[in-house]
Amino acid sequence: MRVLSKDVDANARLPRVTISFVSKDEHEHVTLPATPFANDVACALDFIRGAFFVPDALTKGSFFDTIIASFTRVHTGYRERTTLLGETQMECCNLGGRVPAHLWTRRSEVEAEALTQLGNISRLPWVEHLAVMPDVHFGKGATVGSVIGMRGAVSPAAVGVDIGCGMGAVRTNLVEHDMPDSLHDLRLAIEETIPVGFNGYERPAFFAASREVRKQTEGLLGQFSSLTHEVQGRIDRTANQLGTLGGGNHFIELCFDEGSRCDLCRGTGDLPEGACYRCEGNGTARHAWLMLHSGSRNIGKELAEVHINRAKKLAHNQDLPDPDLAVFLAATPEMQTYRHDLYWAQRYAMLNRSLMLERYMNVMRRFFPNVTFEEPVLCHHNYVAEEHHFGEDLIVTRKGAIRAGAGEMGIIPGSRGTRSYIVRGLGNPQALHSASHGAGRRMSRSKAKKTYSLEDLAAQTAGIECRKDKDVLDEIPGAYKDIDQVMADQADLVEVVARLSQVLCVKG
């Protein structure tokens, strides 16, 4: 059964809804009258608006009865997750705002502070759609894991202070057999080559980069004088931090996938002279991947803070439910300046990852002279894009979320000791073609340090070449959500291309 159309009397805020659909043996018009659950009706219509196909099982009864039956489970303004219109994992919630929140997790699993933030977002007059990823958690201003579609406005806090933060990954031809018994020397070489924490290079690293990266960087830095005046005078630091990791949850990793048919013995496990050394005779070779996570470094943070503070002072933002959600409006000088600086910082972040990957590759070439690399997968997960959804031009902010349009490649990392995923987007319209950016924290850094010991850190990162000292205790895997559950919750947003396990990790 396929939904054909819907008609809403918008002036009365959904007092009367007509749904037309077609099934194998009938064409039926259903009229849904006024109910106390207008936002829940809107949720059902959002499913329909996404052109989902309804399972044939639902054609046995009235479509109207099916909808009403789902609404009988409504008590506090939201309904438990349901497969009303197919295989969706989404739960639609009324958080007291003008638009519902579309959650790819159970509402009961979202911390109260994050729900309050999401409710504040849903009340903004410019918001047209709110999607919440399964790694959702409390953040500064806007919730981490939120995807917000606004009409004619953008909130800098809905991007975050690390503008353009994201991921990069590259598959190599190396397999487990190629690795030495210890990866300690390799980790030290990476740490010597790529500065971490607050550190930068003494001389800009892009001078030794590939011609393409060098050309793009020279062009980008050549535009530095056009950025807002508050950051002028910082070009040297900005240039010296390009190609550096930073701290916090940023990382560089070496991972192995679950394996594919051995390219030497073609999956037979045998060669004329005996067992295949690349797959050790089992026909499957686990390939090594380079992976890293970083953003726009200090310049991105400074630009974000400048514009967040500017937005808070504007007259139209004085009565917002949360001052941190202050917005710039379209066709204003403030919006023009913000967009210019924002897109500059997003380009800087992408170049930062590209340059780090090049330097990481050079380290690998020193240790493994015969290594080769495939095309990298690169993606932002803190950024703004101007997109078209549901017949409207929207400004979409993704804070802790990747774009997952149909066929688009992305990266969803776990934490050390767990798994990470290379994914391909399914283009789910209700998620605004998005997916989670990782596992997401389940406890704050301070709580993680109080909850876990260095012995816990050593146990949870056993078998991984990485630092295990007090300065990285707040990044213990136990401080994060279960990445496998996060992936299960968004099975209708992405498909898994590769599952990766970490064997080496560099932290800031």
Question: What key attributes describe this structure?
Answer:
508 residues; alpha+beta; tRNA-splicing ligase RtcB; six-stranded mixed beta sheet; 24 strands; globular
Task: Give a structural overview.
With 508 residues, the chain is an alpha+beta fold. It has three domains: 1-88, no CATH class; 166-442 and 480-507, tRNA-splicing ligase RtcB (Alpha-Beta Complex), CATH 3.90.1860; 444-479, no CATH class. The chain has eleven helices and 24 strands. It has helices spanning 38-49, 63-71, 112-123, 184-193, 211-221, 235-241, 297-312, 333-367, 445-451, 454-460, 483-489; strands at residues 2-8, 17-22, 27-32, 91-93, 101-103, 127-137, 144-150, 153-154, 166-175, 251-257, 260-261, 270-271, 274-275, 284-285, 287-294, 328-329, 377-380, 382-389, 392-399, 401-403, 409-412, 419-425, 434-436, 494-507. Strands 17-9-15-10-24-22-21 form a seven-stranded antiparallel β-sheet. It has a six-stranded mixed β-sheet with strand order 4-5-6-7-19-18, sandwiched between helices. Strand 12 (270-271) and strand 13 form a beta hairpin. Helix 5 runs antiparallel to helix 8 and helix 7 runs antiparallel to helix 8 (333-367). The longest helix is centred in the C-terminal third of the chain and has 35 residues, at 333-367.
CATH topology of the largest domain: tRNA-splicing ligase RtcB
User: Any idea of the CATH class of the largest domain?
Assistant: Alpha Beta
Spans where pLDDT lies below 50 across 5 or more residues: 1-42, 45-87
State the assembly state of the protein chains.
Answer: single chain
CATH superfamily of the largest domain: tRNA-splicing ligase RtcB
Strand content: 25-35%
Radius of gyration: 25 Å
SS class: alpha+beta
Counted by DSSP, the helix tally is 11
The major pleated sheet works out as:
7 strands, antiparallel
Give the overall average pLDDT.
84
Helix percent reads 25-40%
| Overall geometric form | globular
Distance between termini? 53 Å
**What strand line-up does the widest sheet have?**
17-9-15-10-24-22-21
CATH architecture of the largest domain: Alpha-Beta Complex
Taken together, the total number of domains comes to 3
